[in-house]
Amino acid sequence: MASRIWAHLIVALLGCILASCLRVCYSDSDSRRSPISPGDRKYLESLSLQGKLTFENTTASAKDWGQLRRVTAPAVVLHPTSVDDIATVVRSVARLESELTVAARGLGSSTGSQSQARNRIVVEMTSLNGIMVAPSGDSASNGVPFVEAMGGALWVDVLKASLEHRLAPRSWTDYLYLTVGGTLSNAGVSGQTFRHGPEVSNVLQLEVVTGKGEVVQCTPTENSELFFTVLGGLGQFGIITKARILLEKAPQRVRWMRALYTDFATFKRDQELLIGSAVTKSFDYVEGFVVVNNENVINGWGSVPFVRSEVSEAMIPSSAGPIMYCLEVTKAYSTADLQKLDDVVESMLAPLSFHRELLFKTDTTYFKFLDRVHELETQLRSRGLWEIPHPWLNIFVPASAIDRFDMLVFKRLVTHEFNGPILVYPVNKSQWDKRLSVAIPESPEEIFYIVAFLRNKLPDAHGGPSLSSMLEDNEKILRICEPLQCKQYLPHYQDRSRWKRHFGIKWETFVQNKQAFDPNVILSSSQNIFSRRRGSKFSIANIAHGQSQDE
Ligand SMILES: Cc1cc2nc3c(=O)[nH]c(=O)nc-3n(C[C@H](O)[C@H](O)[C@H](O)COP(=O)(O)OP(=O)(O)OC[C@H]3O[C@@H](n4cnc5c(N)ncnc54)[C@H](O)[C@@H]3O)c2cc1C
Ligand SMILES: *[C@@H]1O[C@H](CO)[C@@H](O)[C@H](O)[C@H]1NC(C)=O
Ligand SMILES: *[C@@H]1O[C@H](CO)[C@@H](O)[C@H](O)[C@H]1NC(C)=O
């Protein structure tokens, strides 16, 4: 008996050593899997479902884009084939006197293991991926076209289905292999956000399975509390099983342009000018990024033109410092407009003050433009550089603080070894309904900047900074952000006081909605905002005052 225990211990120990070498543990051995009591398992097995529950080999459901910490494989994975499957499991878990919790998982594109670990039951949403286009809308939408996509549908498929009717959603993310439910639980931002708001501002209706296991339809006017709290709600209030998304007439083609600046103040003035212009005179997409003044790095000036040989060192103005800035815009057109396009674009660029010799253009289809990151993905995958750790950090910076942010962060911390793009572009708050759960800067000004540090931890053979120093840089940036009243986007925090500060004026409502829609605290617990404990009643008073339930 004793020797068997020793044997188990040694195996477990070896497993741990191996796991720490691998940094991220996807081992499916029992020691790395969340436990589930035989009673709970039996109960779950007795449920009548159309899809299936698996208890073994659940490793694939623990994958996470960030690869920043060890992940415990879930105890149970639900592959639903109907909304009822999800409702049945959630309802049953809510009733159990147990610590079991449930989290929806899209593609695990998060960087803080938000869709796994302590959740025990992971719902693989991608098995619910139906898409229906209503090209003439319906009476509720006043004839405005919409697409109805299930929570696990990928945005790239939503786009393809819509394009068959020459229609397309208006607001996007930079990358389309993300799920509808996953991005709507955050915000969904990109270069269209300045005009149409984030993806969450383009939803007409949702179907949600709440934490009580009820299937609820909600719109901005019907069950509106649930509607707004779920959008940007980090999976805390319900599982999005269906979303109706507004469509517009799809552009055929786009002219895609990048223009280089050496001076931040000029870059900023032009970006803000562009997002404030009248719709008829404005570009359709406005982003920008920080460029390191060096050809031979990932985010160096060689990455600015569409064909690398179009720029050479001799073209970089001698006044340029170590950091430059690139504006990125598009103008949609149809082949019939092609004749006038040069003149139209010329007049739109006229008021801007970029370096005229450092303007680059390309023409492509609307689909290829929106799907641009996927092309990069294919290249990186072939070189083994896609599934690597991603210590990403996304920040919303108030416009009044962006100059300081440039001084303290871009100009000081961005070095030749940054190893990833740094996006920076402004948006207008008026497109973000105050009732949405997503936290944005609370200062009264209308404009804030989206800043994304999308660093890659390259394999050691490539050299470059260690993962821990990259994570330290992120902490440094967050400390700089605090007095600037920034908000983290795609946030992850470990303790409740930081979550409380994150949600700020929205915290109290957030807690109240948690009590209303997930009173047993069973949804997306690895966000570490609320936690379920056996036998403990949800205490709104304790939580609202920032006391942790975890101790
Ligand atoms: C290469 C890449 C590029 C990206 N570019 C952008 C960008 O340009 N703009 C942007 O805004 N974001 C971007 N993201 C981030 C992306 O929006 C988030 O990762 C988001 O979480 C979507 O990922 P997912 O669908 O895999 O969801 P997951 O990461 O699996 O889930 C995220 C969270 O939402 C919850 N959740 C998932 N599905 C549901 C559901 N149906 N109902 C309720 N809760 C759910 C999960 O429990 C989890 O807490 C990018 C990510 C990657 C990897
Ligand atoms: C475990 O799951 C993966 C995919 O999720 C599959 O490829 C593999 O064959 C499975 N292994 C076993 C032993 O079932
Ligand atoms: C923000 O949008 C609102 C509403 O469209 C508009 O009135 C305002 O001028 C915009 N603010 C700026 C600074 O562009």
From TrEMBL:
InterPro entries: Cytok_DH_C_sf (IPR016170), Cytokinin_DH_FAD/cytokin-bd (IPR015345), FAD-bd_PCMH (IPR016166), FAD-bd_PCMH-like_sf (IPR036318), FAD-bd_PCMH_sub1 (IPR016167), FAD-bd_PCMH_sub2 (IPR016169), FAD-linked_Oxase-like_C (IPR016164), FAD-linked_Oxidoreductases_BP (IPR050432). The keyword Cytoplasm does not apply. Residues 69-250 form the FAD-binding PCMH-type domain. Keywords: FAD, Flavoprotein, Oxidoreductase, Signal. Its EC number is 1.5.99.12. Gene3D superfamilies: 3.30.465.10, FAD-linked oxidases, C-terminal domain, Uridine Diphospho-n-acetylenolpyruvylglucosamine Reductase, domain 2. Belongs to the oxygen-dependent FAD-linked oxidoreductase family. This is cytokinin dehydrogenase. It comes from Physcomitrium patens. The gene is LOC112273101.
